[in-house]
Amino acid sequence: TNRQVAVLLAILMSTLACGPSEGVARPVERLSGQAGAPGIGDSDFPLDGNGGYDVSHYALKLGYTPSSRRLDGVATIQATAKQGLSQFNLDLKGFKVGEVSVDGAAATFSRTGHELTVTPAAPLRQGSAFNVKVAYAGVPQPVVDSSNLGRYGFIPTPDGAFVACEPNGARTWFPGNDHPADKATFDFEITVPKGATALANGELTGKPQTSGDLTTFKWREAHPMATYLATATVGRFQLREGKTPGGIRALAAVDPKFTRSLDKLYKLSAEITDYWGTVFGRYPFSSTGGVIDDFTAGYALENQTKPLYGGFDPGEDIIAHELAHQWFGNSLSIERWRDLWLNEGFATYAEWLWAEHKGTGTSDASFRAFYERPAKDPIWTYPPGRAKPSDLFNESVYNRGAMTLHALRGAIGDETFFKLLKTWTSEHQYGNVTTEQFVTLAERLSGKQLDTLFDTWLFQPGRPAI
Ligand code: ARG
Ligand code: ZN
């Protein structure tokens, strides 16, 4: 055909132009596609996420049996090829993979560590939309991290599962592009024993259906979400549903051990969500709320629309923190883990703002209390602007991150500072962000040169002068 002749001509001409070393190889690759990279390009987590494609939607059909801990899943993933792809990777930890198909045609696959490599029957063209279907089953194996992450992922509990996945535990329950740089919408269809409740992100799309001794819950998160914020927490739960005074749908759920916390969790979550709407800009999701499970995780996680509290009754400060993450972390997600202070520093500063709002403290007093810490304290030895992969959630990322914002507020004044927060959330709503973008915006709105302030607070060890 004319096309083949054109391709042959192109090969011939590029061979003549460039010499044999690259002239022959390149056009051939373009015809067959290349392998997508096994990582998305975050050098601190080189195998997290994947290259070569972008996911737009996950449809997860899951069956979970607490007594046997067995999870049966079918994941259908809609994506777009960002390059010609002869093969591509998904992240999946554990499980036996049954079948994989691409656009309905059987695909071959192989597995190495948490990399599931898929080879479609025919290469995918750059720019084409495709879907991948993966059937898998087994007992989920949560991640147990030796540094400061503890246990995370899909964690079986006696009555269900506690599902909190930051930073990279989504792979313990579904195959995907497990990195916050690739956000997508989600549909969940979760079948559990009758009497258990499955709580995923977003909204129920219908009434739970019981047939025999199984109940199916269908949830939809219609806004883009990072994989680590996805949840399918299962167990016996008491629920309270309604709307916040400001009109946002709200759901609180507690394990029966926390019955006495249900109303408090519901009311505080509603009140705080409404208040953050006035400070950070309109609430970005379709509902708010919180879940207390009886699994002692030692942490809470800001799961999109449904923060999860691991075995404790959260105080106002923690609820204020997790709900602030709905803007900082969830609507605006980091592009690289090293910028984690954009999540944790902001959510911690929100705790200080909440105390100020309630009249129980001032952000100045919070700042001073930390500022007095001795020189050997982690906040002075660990500059928070570059979170370390081996110590990602160091308290400096939280507390000195918050101090950075307080120092910024002092430098640019209250009016510009609060305008900056709202401009930041609106300009990057549902997107991905970097520290450089925040610095640029702060300089643009204030008209000030802020390099020294950000450099000393975020990137240099030692206690900055004030
Ligand atoms: N982002 C959570 C918070 O609000 C912390 C998550 C910690 N993750 C972990 N695997 N320990 O503070
Ligand atoms: Zn946090």
Automatic annotation (TrEMBL):
Which EC numbers does the record give? 3.4.11.2
Q: Where is the Peptidase M1 membrane alanine aminopeptidase domain?
A: 317-457
Which molecular function GO terms apply here?
alanyl aminopeptidase activity; metallopeptidase activity; zinc ion binding
Aminopeptidase N-like N-terminal domain: which residues? 56-229
For this UniProt record, the keywords arranged alphabetically read as follows: Hydrolase, Metal-binding, Metalloprotease, Protease, Signal, Zinc
> What is the residue range of the signal peptide feature?
1-19
The record's section on Gene3D superfamilies has: Neutral Protease Domain 2 (1.10.390.10), tricorn interacting facor f3 domain (2.60.40.1730)
- Which cofactors does this protein require? Zn(2+)
Q: Which InterPro entries does the record cross-reference, listed alphabetically? A: Aminopeptidase_N-like_N, Aminopeptidase_N-like_N_sf, Peptidase_M1, Peptidase_M1_aminopeptidases, Peptidase_M1_dom, Peptidase_M4/M1_CTD_sf
Q: Which reaction does it catalyse?
A: Release of an N-terminal amino acid, Xaa-|-Yaa- from a peptide, amide or arylamide. Xaa is preferably Ala, but may be most amino acids including Pro (slow action). When a terminal hydrophobic residue is followed by a prolyl residue, the two may be released as an intact Xaa-Pro dipeptide
Might you name a Gene Ontology BP term for this protein? proteolysis
Task: Identify the Pfam families for this entry.
Answer: Peptidase_M1, Peptidase_M1_N
Q: What class of enzyme is it?
A: hydrolase
Protein family per UniProt: Belongs to the peptidase M1 family.
Give the protein's recorded name: Aminopeptidase N
Species in which this protein is naturally found: Nonomuraea glycinis
Organism ancestry: Bacteria, Bacillati, Actinomycetota, Actinomycetes, Streptosporangiales
